[in-house]
Amino acid sequence: MTKHTPTPRSQEPEDVQKRDFIKGLTAAFLGFITLFLTIPLVSYLIPSSTGGSDEKFLKVPNFPTLGTDKPTKMTTVEDVDVQAFITTKVVYEVWVIKHAADKATVYSSLCPHLNCRYNFDSTKDVFACPCHGSVFNEGGKCIAGPAPRPLDTLPYKIEGGELFVQYKLFKAGIPEKVEA
Ligand code: FES
User: How many angstroms separate the CA atoms of 141 and 135, rounded?
Assistant: First the structure.
């Protein structure tokens, strides 16, 4: 009895077309995945041209309605790009003393001793830090406690009656005001 070994079937043009189609589809899919993974990496490595809050003045709401010469804690919000297509909101707190429609003092809300958040004691007209007892007058001068420097003022501008603040962080625990 003779045994027949199967001979490979010659490839039909239809088979070749299917194979090329699948190859093309796979290449397109891999290209898309590579692009999808690369964009966030590149956006992480290249700093945004607008920079962080270091370069931006953020609007502090309700400045026109604020009473004068009364320290008020206010918040401002920044939308920050954390990854491609994803933004998150960062809330900054500042203390504002409005002196006039075009003049104010703006303090960072962090105590220069060790970065606790301090409050305003309206019965004594002083800023008081709950952590280690530093006390500051309305001018920001430390009048009691371990804080090594006055309260940190922040750059601001007033445009169209609205207050805009440049939020910055400073190194804690040292006598000089140095950006962190
Ligand atoms: S952090 Fe304010 S007194 Fe220490």
Answer: 8
The Cα–Cα gap between 175 and 95 comes to 21
| Ligand 1 atom closest to Cα of residue 114 | 1
**Token code pair at residue 82:** 């954390």
Adjacency order of strands within the sheet including 162-165:
58-60, 162-165, 156-159
Q: Compute, in angstroms, the gap from residue 84 CA to the centroid of ligand 1.
A: 38
63 conformational bin, left if phi > 0, alpha if psi -120 to 50, beta if neither: alpha
The residue whose C-alpha atom lies closest to atom 1 belonging to ligand 1 is 114
d(C-alpha 96, C-alpha 73), whole Å:
6
Evaluate whether 117 touches 107 at the Cβ level (below 8 Å). Answer: no
Averaged pLDDT, groups of 10, the chain, 180 residues long? 50 67 63 44 37 72 96 91 82 96 98 98 98 98 98 97 96 97
- Please give the model's pTM, rounded to 2 decimal places: 0.69
Q: Is 113 in the pocket of ligand 1 (CB under 6 A)?
A: yes
Q: What amino acid is encoded at 135 in this protein?
A: V
The alpha carbon of residue 51 and the mean position of all alpha carbons in its chain are separated, in whole angstroms, by 10
